[in-house]
Amino acid sequence: MTDFLLQPWPWWFSGPLIGLTVPLLYLLAGKGFGISTSFQQIGALCSPRSKLDYLKNYDRRKGTWTLVFAFGIVIGGFIGSHWLSAESIEFLPAEFFSVWGAAKLFIGGTLIGFGARYAGGCTSGHAITGIANWNFPSVVATIFFFVGGLGVTWGLGHILF
Amino acid sequence: MATLLDNKNTDHLAPAPTAETETNTTARSTTSAVDSSLVYATTLMVGTFLGILFTKSEVVRWQRVHEMFLFQDSHLYLIIGSGVAVAMLGMAIIRKCEASDIYGKPIQYKPKPFHKGVALGGMTFGAGWAITGACPGPIYAQLGSGVGLAGFTYAGALVGMYLYAWAKPHLPH
User: How far away is chain B from the Cα of A34, in angstroms, using its nearest Cα?
Assistant: First the structure.
């Protein structure tokens, strides 16, 4: 059992448990599972005098939980990699440890932040929570997540990777 | 459509909560937050649970995401698929039982509206996912695991959020 837990978890174990967090977060906290709203929360917190509607009209107090949730994921990441892994995890391939690698992460990160907020959610809010609630726009969003991801991987892969 | 996207926020204009906060802090003598500390405790717990799952399921690994987009590895498809299936079942049960959360408030999913950004932003997001090998949840899990480079991904994500905040009035919705 300990052996099993210290190895990478198979999909049939981790996938259903990830799905379970959606009803769990509703039942225990009354919140809809989503992660990228925490970006907007940080924007609204760091720029309290912003004239931009997107930050000005955002209720920072109501959104505090998004940061608590994100912080939980940070703690979980620590526990998972430091206490629950027999071997160290290779998060990023060695070639990312370079100026070009860091630049790629920054540019890719910008696309993530911009795209997730423009689409109104990310993989958790749209692909998992949205589809699980039969929300049609979330199906469209998920299809386009893959259009973008497959397009970059197959179209620009020879330059990027 | 832009108003739809904002409908959860429009009831609060910037100056109003400030005034409210001041009266509330004296009354409650705690934080100015609207949720109880129990909500924050359970939210933190579920977040931690999820962070462990993100890490141990390997959705935090660039290689896994890359191989998903190359159709070389079914691991992530199976995780997303089984995750959605279980979440769907859980929500169906909640709807069927008209369940409330532990505070007695009825559980209700707030639908995300459709607009052009769902497709355009979705595509942009997907491109970033493929390049960095992480979506927002895994970025946080990577940071917690001590992956320093994830700081670049996260910094980028916040810049992207600001770019959207700035560009929003000019973008098709």
Answer: 9
